Amino acid sequence: MKEFDYVIIGGGCAGLSLAYELEIHQKLKDKTLAIIEPRSEYKGDKTWSFWKVAPHNFDDCVKKSWENFSINIPNKINHLECKDYPYQSIDSGLFYKKINDKLKENSNISFFKSIEEISKKNSFIFNSVPIIKKNHLNLWQHFCGVEIETKNNFFDEEIFNLMDFDCEQRDSVHFFYTLPFSKNKALVETTWLSKMNDNSQKDYDNQIKDYIANHLKIKDYEIIYKEEGAIPLFYPFYERERNKINIGTAGCMTRLSTGYTFLNIQEHSKYIRENIENISNSKRFEISKKYQFLDDIFLRVLNKHPEKMSNIFFNMFKASPKTVIKFLSNKSNFFEDLKIILKMPKWIFIKALFD
Ligand SMILES: Cc1cc2nc3c(=O)[nH]c(=O)nc-3n(C[C@H](O)[C@H](O)[C@H](O)COP(=O)(O)OP(=O)(O)OC[C@H]3O[C@@H](n4cnc5c(N)ncnc54)[C@H](O)[C@@H]3O)c2cc1C
After folding, report:
1. What number does the ligand 1 atom closest to the CA of 261 have?
2. Structure letter (DSSP) for residue 131
3. Which atom of ligand 1 is nearest to the CA of 227?
4. For the whole prediction, is pTM greater than 0.90?
């Protein structure tokens, strides 16, 4: 069976980002790479959104970028600016096409549907297929979104809604977000932070229909795209092996308090590319322990007091938006962390430390 220098298991966001990063920096000129991906065709299946706190390779796949946003709880709305770190949405369809077109130019890169088709005995493996085991909280972010096209111009495309908690909570944490791509097109997504075993929250179609009709007050529209998914708010099982690194969700690149993963994947890809010549001996790249610790406390509070979370998120944004964005994107310094911590209800968080 054929052997390769590198094998990437899973040609999704992390696998393709890494392959692209290696390819454009000439790291695959004299090395061979196998990408294992079972899907038979690539089509847009996700909209990756994030605050642009660091450069990435996919500016030409940005569907829309915003410098203003809002967050609201019942009867209160906060309008905020994010000029320093615009919020971007990447079209996964454009992302897959751009990368696959580039990778096909290099005959050192081969694609396979199953790992059984190659020998991986002497390869270095980058694995993006997570092994999910239950953890003590077992919380998930699960969601469903539709892109709608309205008959008449309806949306203000200059401002997006990050979180709208003015919706039923069903003893969990629930919000909608709306990303207006143009005056008559927007992604409307229902998002739950809860234990996944609760199917009572998965009537997504009804939730979205009701929100569009009764909150956004839109009558005439068509659904042109739909996405659905779930992100574990705990780290998948990760066994240290000398010839293997996990990447993406499997590689613990998700910020557990928010689900943001895309930009961490890009930073991880860059780190691997910079260290590829000595990758077996490189330090494991991870989201700083500081954020792992703070997110763990945050999720314990969320698990115990879901009813308090809408106010907690709302009040967090009373610190300057720049500070909050840096905090949520792993870029904050000690003083910025402190500003956020001071916005939190202290006793609940202190008690969560000892739970
Ligand atoms: C619908 C959705 C929306 C999201 N939106 C955002 C967002 O707005 N911002 C953000 O930062 N993050 C977001 N995320 C989280 C995260 O960025 C994505 O999940 C991202 O795709 C993770 O990349 P990945 O490579 O780890 O996983 P994936 O992109 O899922 O890639 C894994 C790949 O492995 C393949 N695979 C599966 N089984 C095997 C196997 N046995 N062998 C080989 N290959 C296999 C799959 O087909 C897939 O292509 C979202 C997640 C989802 C599900």
Report:
1. 11
2. B
3. 1
4. yes
